[in-house]
Amino acid sequence: MWTGLLRCARNDKRKANTKETIMKRHNHLWKEFISPENLELAANNAVKSKRGKTQTRHFLKHRSEYMQKLQDDLEHNRFRTSPYKIFTIFEPKKRQIYELPLYPDHIVHHALINVLGPIWIRMFIRDSFACIPGRGLHSASQRTMHFMRKHKYVLQCDIRKFYPSLDHNVMIGILKHKISDRRILDLLIGIIRSGGDGKNIPIGNLTSQWLGNVYLNELDYFIKQKLHWKSYLRYCDDFCLFGDDKLELHRIRQTIEHYLLTELKLTFSRCALRPTRCGINFIGYRFFPHFILMRQRSTKRLSRRIMNIARNDDVSMHSMGQLAAAHGWLKWACSYNFRRHLWARICQTKTTPYVRKFIRKHLFKR
Fold first, then answer.
1. Which among 27, 81, 111, 343 is least buried, having the fewest CB atoms inside 10 angstroms?
2. Closest Cα to residue 242, out of 280, 291, 215?
C-alpha cells in the first residue's frame, strides 16, 4: 500500500514540476546577461576555432576596449544588430546563409544563450534533438532505432522552408510566455526582426538554432500532452511518429497539419506514412529495424570529398577535418562495403603512399 502511495506522490510531483517548467516565466536575467564574467565567456566561445580569421585577430588585439564598449552599449540600449552578409550554399541543399560579424553580434548571441540556454533545455522534451548539448545526431539515431524496432509504421514529416517561414509575431508571443525580463525580450525581438519583414529567422545565427527549437517546442507539447503520442521524436524541423495503427496515424497527421497551419503558421513539405520494415531516410541515414545505412546523397558527397583529397595529395588541416567528419558519419552505419569500394577507387589514382595511408587510417579505423 505504502509503495503505491509513494509512487503516486512521485508521479504527482513529477507532473507538477513539468507543469511549473512549462508555465514559469523568467525575470531578472539582465544583470546575469551583462555581467563581465558572462560576456568574457561569450567572447571565448565566439572566437573558438576562428582564431585564424582576420576579424578575430583584430578583436583579440583590442579585446579589453571592445568588451568595455560592448558592455556600455548593452547597458545603455545602444546595441543594434549589424548588417548581414548574405550568401548562398548548395550543400546539402540550396539555402541562403546570413553572416554577422564576430564583434559585437556573435558575442551578444553567445552571451544570450549562456543565460537562456539552460532555461530552454529544461523546457524541451526528452525526444527533441539538434543544437542541444548531449542530444545531437547520434543520440537521435539511437532513439530512432529504438522506435523502428518497436513499431510497425512510421509517419515522417518535414516543415516547408522552416527558418524562412517562422512568423515573427508567433515567435515573440511564445517568448513572452517564457521570459518576462523586458530588456532581454527587447534584445531578442531586435534580433528576430532583423531577419525580414514579418517572417524569416536568419540561418547562420546561433540564436536562430535555439529559437527554432523553442518555436517547435510548442508542437512537441501538443503531440505529447494534447495528443498523448509517446513514440515521437524531432530533429530540428524533421519529425517522426511511430505506431502500430495505420488509420490512427492518418488521423494524427491531419490533426498536426491543422495545428501547424492555424497555430504556428507552418505547412508540410512532405508527410509520408510507411511500414518501418521499408526503412526511412532521416538525419542523413537510412534506418531499418535491424541496421542503418548511409543515405545515397550522403555517400556521394563523402566520396567526392575524399576522392578530391586523394587526387590532390592534400594533407592540410582542412582535409584532416573532412576525413575525421567522414569517419564520424561512417562509423554509425553499416558502411564496410561502401568504404571498401571507395578504397578500391583511391588505389587506382596516382596518390602518394603517404596520403593513401593517411586516408586508409581514417576510412577503416574503429
1. 27
2. 280
